[in-house]
Write a structure and sequence with these properties.
This protein is an alpha/beta fold. It contains 20 helices and 12 strands. The strands form 3 sheets. The chain has a 5-stranded antiparallel beta sheet. Strands 7-8-9-6-10 form a 5-stranded parallel beta sheet, covered by helices on one side.
Length: about 450
Amino acid sequence: MTDLRWRAWFQRSGEPIFVLNRHRRILFVNRAWEKLTGVSAERARQLACRRPRAGDDEGWEKILEHALRPPEEALEGRAARARRRVPHADPARRWWDVDFLPFRGDDGLLFLLGRITVASASAGLPPPPLPDAAVALREANLRRHDLESLASDLPSMRRVAEQVRLAARVRLPALFVGERGVGKTWAARVVHALSPARTRPFVALDCARLPPAVVAGLLFGDGEAERGFEPGTLYLREPSRLPRELQLRVCHLLASEESEERGPRLLAACRADPADEVRAGRLLEELACRLSPITVAVPPLRERREDLPRLVEPLLERASAVNARHIAGLTPAAWDAIRAYAWPGNLSELYRVLVSGTARTDGETIDAADLPLYLRLERRATAPERSLPLKTLLEEAERRLIALALRKSAGNKSRAADLLSVWRPLLLRRMEALGLAEPNPKSKRRTADPEA
């Protein structure tokens, strides 16, 4: 880099240009870059373009470092483009498309040439092209979320599949109701994969965990969380956890989208019955009505035990991939434990158990010993008991009581009858019936063989 002619050539460029070394430090910036950022070339050479870390301040130079960080494919030697949002900038110049062109040598990456193109997210510009790996991953994800993944012989699941098919054909909002881990998000992704919006992003927002300002920015494109993309489907988890004023804004958004065929498709999910949430004052009645033209009730796993073999197969395949192992299946003992368990955590818990089992097993199958201890204890507690007829139990108890009374009375049957509070003839008949006394000698003579 001793030749300075390339520097003079880039200085004449009207586009903001910068150069990064392999350690992501800035080596050079031109005057157009200085004008755009307001940072001098001398100061820029002290910046290291990397991902934000916990505790980083919000100064302009830190924001620049985050905005100019190269993606992994650029560091691996492939040309790449990244769209970055630059907060606190002029709204018309808030979005930057940053191109990275790698230069490689015999020893690997030499440096990265970067170029900034200022773009407005509201200008209708097409999004930057996705890397080939990202496109392949998206296509594989869409193929995975098909109606076949919801196939079942159970009436409740057949109803779910029909409702999902209907939700994919129309543009109305849909509400998925069910316990934690039953597969509400999976069903929503199937709707997205079957809809015309399948080529655009599926964005899931957890309203119970995300700050309201972030949700508002991603929904309405305002504030610090303004989005730089156009999602195909927005999926809200637990909308009842949003503040009431934000719930009202969602209502207005849905009202406008019903009359205009534009914008993202809105799906939502609730664990509790929406009517109960409305009565408790957590969910606006208007929002509940607007979210639920199509309501899909996903049953819990304990009501779908017949589907366990069909559900375990794909989950076991994913669990094997996580642990980089080939697991052929489960032993009969492991299947007995899985079928006996109630699965309060539903499919999420089943997946975690299979991941644990694939990591613990020494062979190619998961045995009961490879399952968590609580599953094995549950199986033992719910094991079928042997049959004990009531008549047998009563006769055994009566036999023990009579034997105890005879011991206490030293074999005196009259005293034993008094201890048991019964008549002596009754005691004698019961003793004979229970095999505790010799048969009556008179009856022996009557039944004796006449030839004797």
